[in-house]
Amino acid sequence: MRKSKKAIKIAVTVILSCMMCSFSAQEEWTRLLDKDLTAWATYLSYRHQTGYNGKVPQDEDGKPVKPIGYNKKGQNVFSVIEQNGVSVLRISGEIYGCVFTKQDFENYHLKMKVKWGTKKWDPRLNEPMDSGILYHSRGEAGVDYWRSWMLAQEFQIMEGGFGDYWAIANSGCHIKMKDPGSRSDMGIFDPDGTDTAMGAGGNRSGFVQHSADYEKPGEWNEVELICFEDKSIHIINGHAVMALSQSVYRDGETLKPLVKGKIQLQSEAAEVFYKDIEIRKIKGIPHQFKTLFQSLSNL
Fold first, then answer.
1. pLDDT surpassing 90 at residue 109
2. Which of 154, 166, 261, 299 has the fewest beta carbons under 10 Å from its own?
């Protein structure tokens, strides 16, 4: 009997240890930023000017201007500096483009801190400072309107627009919106709103405004992105301001699931800083956010 009790105790200990290891593995964060940007690659298009119309620019002889391209040195658009012993990614914004992860990610929780610099460039000298997190990125860069990024879903980082949604190139999704029939060009995310198809597969433009503005001007802002299967949540300083589902992209005449890919950080005519970039795998939508995807109202 004693041996049996001892065996049971050992078995229970082993099971608990395995459970703790499993829990720890699930909760473990991986840092994506170091001083050498070892987890990232870069792409630069060309210097955009005011009046750009979405077409490839031409030189004086009418020939297409070639983009700067992938991983070109000497432009000083993407650099890592150290502040108080912490690696900080500086994106100058002077040339449109992106720094993107070499690895694809699926079913994850991403977090980072972001703060604006002071410099702006054409064509946004008179516009709010702008950047963004492009996720589920796939294919070649330069397929969007600005000829600068991969097909993706956008978590916008913009003065007054932290957490807005943009469809990049041929992406699309469903978002619950307030009064979606009132305007043809934009809507506002509302957790109790009407489920509306956006971008590819929808009949509306690929932009939706966040539900509320939780940006802290002049300070470091914590932004989080939760992606699981076809669903995504944009979180600003602890507040969920956007949720999308049925993430897709158009491949010819077919809509396909868009649920994994690289992560891009945009260079978009404004100086911006990112730090504490970390990611971890998840096994589902966190409980506190599940109501964002529950029964849809018919407003």
1. yes
2. 299
Categorize the per-residue pLDDT at 243 as very low, low, confident or very high, splitting at 50, 70 and 90.
very high
Question: 275 in helix, strand or coil?
Answer: strand
Distance CA 156, CA 135 (A): 11
Q: Residue 229 above 90 pLDDT?
A: yes
- Does the model's pTM come out above 0.70? yes
- Kindly report whether the peptide bond that precedes residue 57 is cis, defined as omega within 30 degrees of 0: no
Residue whose entry in the numeric block shows the structure tokens 């980072």: 112
CB 226, CB 283: distance < 8 Å: no
pLDDT band at 91 (very low <50, low <70, confident <90, very high): very high
- Domain annotation covers residue 298: no
Whole domain around residue 266: which residue ranges? 32-293
**In sequence order, what are the residues at sequence separation of 6 or more whose Cβ sits closer than 8 angstroms to the Cβ of residue 133?**
110, 112, 154, 155, 157, 223, 225, 263, 264, 265, 266
Has residue 235 been placed in a domain?
yes
CATH number of the domain that residue 239 is part of = 2.60.120.560
Are 205 and 143 within one domain? yes
pLDDT, mean of residues 128-147: 98
Residues 177 and 202: their CA atoms lie apart, in Å, by 13
Residues 112 and 195 in one domain: yes
